Amino acid sequence: MKALVYHGPQDIRYEDFPDARLGGPDHALVRIAKSAICGSDLHIYHGEYHTRETGFVVGHECIGEILEVGSEVRRFKPGDIVLSAPGMGCTDCPECLKGMVGCCKKNQPRCYGQGPFLGSLQGVQTELISVPAADTTLLHIPQGITDDQAILLTDNLPTAYFGARNADIRPGCSVAVIGVGPIGLSSVECAFILGAARVFVIDRVPERLAYAASLGAIPVTGDNVQEQIISANHGEQVDAVVDTVGKEDTLNLSLRLPRVRGVVSEIGAFLSNRVPFPMALVQSRSVTFRIGLCSVQAQWPDLIPLVQAGRIRGEHVISHHVGLSEGSQAYRLFASRKDGVMKIVMDARR
Known about the structure:
The structure is a single chain. By secondary structure, the protein is α/β, with parallel strands linked by helices. The chain has two domains: 2-155 and 295-347, Quinone Oxidoreductase, Chain A, domain 1 (Alpha-Beta Complex), CATH 3.90.180.10; 158-291, NAD(P)-binding Rossmann-like Domain (Rossmann fold), CATH 3.40.50.720. Helices cover 27% and strands 25% of the residues. The protein has twelve helices and 18 strands. Strands 3, 5, 6, 9, 10, 17 and 18 form a seven-stranded mixed β-sheet that branches. Strands 13-12-11-14-15-16 form a six-stranded parallel β-sheet, with helices on both faces. Strand 15 (258-266), helix 10 (279-284) and strand 16 form a beta-alpha-beta unit. Helix 5 (156-166) crosses helix 6 and helix 5 (156-166) crosses helix 11 (296-308). The longest helix has 13 residues, at 296-308.
């Protein structure tokens, strides 16, 4: 089969890879129809995982058709059209049955295409994948959901919704979203769905700020971000902050933006255990700080009806559709943030 394979920083190649085969009794073998590049895939692309392991398939967002199921799979059969969560637990512990796979009582967190960082599973930017814990990892694509919407429900929208919920956004709140790539833009939509009155967005890419403005957000640029937000927010700091970037500078900014007893929700992927944290500031202002990895499955019951009803138009963050064979170029384009690129979906059949 063909796949996008990691060979080192800035070196992802479209090449032959051994065919995936059914990996166990709780697995399903899925023929990939489409996959997508996530912002967190760029951590691998830029070599930020600091792993010496190469030769693994990347990617964790996909939809496809089931070809074969193991003897323990009960919810799916060959021919089913499904989307897959990127992370998985088991099929029978109480947490996984509720969708909280990040709290699995049997397995450590696992995710496709992250190399040794999260379980050494092969990624989904390929033609075939064996899905562990299929009964709690896969979902039949719901009626009224397009392929593009299904791709976003694999990670992008659930992570944005998780971040917005962790920010305690309520009707009338003012919110700041730091970083408006695909997940940040979806975070804007989720903030409004949860009742935010004003959403400020902070980024350096003009096209992304313009798109956020089309959703009703207020773009903020320059060095005096905090002063601009206070001025535009009737002299008040914001109630909540969602940081989608996960860098030292954005963490530092996010903790300075909320009001006393405000909330900061961190959903960026941190790869360092030595990030300075302004503890005295946070403590003195009684700021609530939440950080975590999204259990995608737990967000589906809320999100799917909102997408079906057109309340969330998340698919507009998809800017490019290409073939999997163009994957190497797609990674370079996504990393450049040029040509209006936001989200890239790849067709595994070309």
